[in-house]
Amino acid sequence: MARITRVAKAQQRYETVPVIDPETGEPKRTPVINKRTGEQKTTKRGTPVFMSVTQLDKTKPKANLRCDFPGCDIDGGEILPGSAYMHVSPKSGPYGGVQRNRHQVHPAWQQWDLSNSLSAQLARIAHDFSEAIDTAESPDDVTTALGEAAASVEEIADQKQESADNIEEGFGHATSSSEELTETADQLRDWAGEFESADVPEMTECEECSGDGKVECETCEGSGEVEDEVGDKPCDDCEGAGDNECSNCDGTGEDLEAWREEVRDNVTIVDESPV
Length: 275
What we know:
The structure is a single chain. The protein is built from 5 helices and 13 strands. It has 3 domains: 5-109, no CATH class; 118-200 and 257-271; 205-254, no CATH class. It is α+β, with helices and mostly antiparallel strands. The longest helix is centred in the middle third of the chain and has 33 residues, at 139-171. The strands form 6 sheets. A 3-stranded antiparallel beta sheet has the order 1-8-9, with no helix packed on it. The chain has a two-stranded antiparallel ribbon with strand order 2-5. Strands 3-4 form a two-stranded antiparallel ribbon. Helix 2 (118-134) packs antiparallel against helix 3 (139-171). The radius of gyration is 32 Å and the shape is flat. Helix content is 31%, strand content 17%.
């Protein structure tokens, strides 16, 4: 993954202009020296190599950088001078890639934001599944998340097979590249099929409330009333009911976080890519 650089304070940017040699009135140039020999570099034809001398023109400020975080509404999406930001230049060719910028307060780019590689796509699927588990409230929710992950994997498999078919159609026969793509597609489909047989744990009864979803009100010790100077009065904390909703299980009677952790430990198939 491309290296993300963090900048504490953005600086005002200015256009670069050539330095004019006062003696000639022409743009100033300096010879490029070979560090090993100490002599001026030359082209293959023997022409001396020079480097233009430039400087920042403070009368020509550049436009502010733009934040690429989806829906960014900070300063209209601009990264103003003095703002903390980060930037990255994912490689998109032999000479690097275009710089992308984002306010520091936003989440950093994920692997799949910067690359369309197979590993990046599978990492996105695993991440989405993990986020689904973080909010799951029943085994059915996990099954649904597994189905969505399987569908995403099968979609990638279809893309690989389509690429293999295009290669074979172009050459008129199978090639090592097309065979490799077909093998990858088959492995992905087999893997996606295993999602359906994943062993999803049953819900875990909350020990704090014994599955009732309620716990005794500590303020009134379960009586529903508290003493005041006049006499007993309904407990404001539990509205006189004598018990409160169990915070450990959100009143469901099931220990959701303990169950989710068990799901994370048992349902690891989405993280076990065969390719």
